[in-house]
Design goal:
The protein is α+β, with helices and mostly antiparallel strands. The protein has eight helices and 14 strands. Strands 1, 2, 3, 4, 5, 6 and 14 form a seven-stranded mixed β-sheet that branches. Strands 7, 8, 9, 10, 11, 12 and 13 form a seven-stranded mixed β-sheet that branches. Helix 2 runs antiparallel to helix 6 and helix 4 packs across helix 7.
């Protein structure tokens, strides 16, 4: 499939998240991918792409597993499917099993419960589904403002941190402009690493390959209108960066790095409030905190949702 076809399909699918966009997947494959690429494509009688799932074959101790591109770095893995094509989901599965001579089993993880990847199987195959990750989701109100919709405790926290920032002076919050993305990412990596170093760990952003992936993905996401990266500065110094996304229907927080040196001040709260309020103003009805059950996510009022892990083998 061409990049243009993939983008057209992605934009037609209301379920698709930025993790299914070519901007994210192409960068992942370039910097983190490997093995034999197997792109699953389903087309209608006119040759139009109606479903797609970029994959690769992962060789693991003699087992050839078909795995979606984006694995490990994508909180939601899924196919893109055209909802206007009535046969799209069935055609996707036919296309998947048309490649069965190249793999022994399917491994789909971080799959949402309404995913087409949880559809029916042909005879001779069996699926094992089990819980994968918890991804808290905040239901957003029909319209701004956000603060009156939050719990009293969270509302007081946002107001407190904003007042503390005003008292400090020189604190600003704004989305990174295209020319500021690399600077913001570098600051994010440094802040995130410093936080995890206190616990004797490297953190998930320490790998140079992971950093190269984000340096490639973020500008492409920005060009597609999907990136929302709040940057909090105290004077000229960056004190918090939140790598966020928004597709108009949903907002997402991927990873954050913050400076905790100022007592009783959470720069991260400023970044989250800025992102969530912007997503709400754009018409989003959900905000996804993505994998992990950190307490602050539930403080915002998010509710737990689970993704699934599906393994498909011959019966």
């Amino acid at each position: 499939m061409t990049s243009e076809e993939h983008w057209t399909l992605f934009r037609a699918d209301p379920r698709a998240t930025p993790f299914q966009s070519p901007a994210w997947l192409d960068a992942w494959w370039t910097h983190l991918g490997g093995g034999e690429r197997v792109d699953i494509e389903a087309r209608d009688d006119a040759g139009r792409l109606i479903a797609a799932l970029p994959c690769f074959v992962w060789h693991d101790a003699g087992v050839r597993r078909l795995v979606p591109v984006g694995a490990t770095q994508s909180d939601y893995l899924d196919a893109a499917v055209d909802p206007a094509a009535p046969d799209a989901r069935a055609a996707l599965w036919r296309a998947i099993f048309a490649t069965a001579d190249r793999w022994n089993e399917l491994l789909f993880h971080d799959v949402r419960e309404d995913s087409p990847l949880l559809g029916g199987l042909p005879d001779g195959w069996r699926a094992t589904d089990e819980p994968c990750e918890t991804c808290p989701v905040l239901a957003l109100p029909p319209a701004p403002p956000l603060l009156p919709q939050l719990s009293k405790t969270q509302r007081r926290k946002v107001v407190h941190d904003r007042h503390r920032a005003e008292a400090l002076g020189g604190v600003t919050v704004a989305f990174a402009a295209p020319g500021e993305i690399d600077e913001a990412l570098t600051a994010l990596f440094e802040l995130h690493e410093a936080r995890w170093r206190l616990e004797g760990q490297e953190g998930v952003l320490a790998s140079p390959r992971v950093q190269a992936f984000h340096h490639a993905a973020a500008p492409a996401l920005a060009a597609a209108g999907l990136l929302r990266m709040p940057v909090v500065r105290h004077g000229r110094r960056i004190v918090s960066v939140l790598l966020g996304l928004c597709d108009g229907r949903r907002g997402y927080s991927y990873v954050i790095g913050s400076d905790f040196a100022v007592p009783k001040q959470s720069f991260g709260t400023l970044a989250f409030a800025h992102l969530i309020e912007a997503c709400l103003a754009e018409g989003a009805r959900e905000f996804h905190f993505l994998r992990g059950e950190e307490g602050y996510k539930y403080g915002w009022g998010a509710e737990p949702t689970r993704t699934l892990r599906r393994v498909v083998k011959r019966a």
